Amino acid sequence: MRKPVIAGNWKMHMTCADALQFLDSFVPLVSGTPTDRHIVIAPPFTALSTLAEKIKGTSIKLSSQNVHWEDQGAYTAEVSPKMLMEFNTTYSIVGHSEPRKYFSESDEQINRRARSAQAHGLIPIVCVGESDHQRERGEEERVIRRQIEQGLEDTDTNKLVVAYEPIWAIGTGKTCESKEANRICGLIRKWVGTSDLIVQYGGSVKPSNIDELMSMSDIDGVLVGGASLQPESFARIVNYTNQ
Ligand code: PGA
User: Fold this and answer.
1) What is the CATH class of 5-238?
2) How many C-beta atoms surround the C-beta of residue 72 within 10 A?
3) Which of the following is catalytic: 38, 68, 96, 105?
């Protein structure tokens, strides 16, 4: 039984004060959410501590937006899995297309991050997805398969989440058509070879398309950027119905 993971990726948004204000509105809106889904927030590193305190007693889990592979060392600007564990972090996003694009993250680095996360008891959310050019050239399957093979090498595929995020759908308002998102999510599960693998879709998920996305047989949750920044819209997404 695959339990969907609904995760809000706040990216570089939200001070601690903003995050507290968000939770004041959000927590009551999800107090009656069915327990058949996981609710996750990935705040900036600076808000993890504040949120960790505030979500005690709720069903909300925390994710980091990245994680380094070493426990400590001379890695300016990085955060280690050991540090994240101090704040009861459950998940770590790795391989998001933004660090891939802006900081030239490679599949090899992403793999090291994912393996280290698992070694410390964190569940990596490994993001994969093709660019618009790659899709125009019909290369999406080859690109995603390579990201999967290299990014997941030597990981425990029973203890991770894969997020299919077509780059052309991120922050653009252009959602991937739900049938196509479903097809790719199914292929990813087949390539990984783990029938219980949780595969999320991400890219312009919003209150108006969540129910349709979650009614798809191979989509086990969503990774939400922009629409996770307002308590009402993220609560609507968390409270999806797939009947
Ligand atoms: P978006 O971002 O929902 O704003 O498109 C998704 C993501 O980057 O994870």
Assistant:
1) alpha beta
2) 10
3) 96
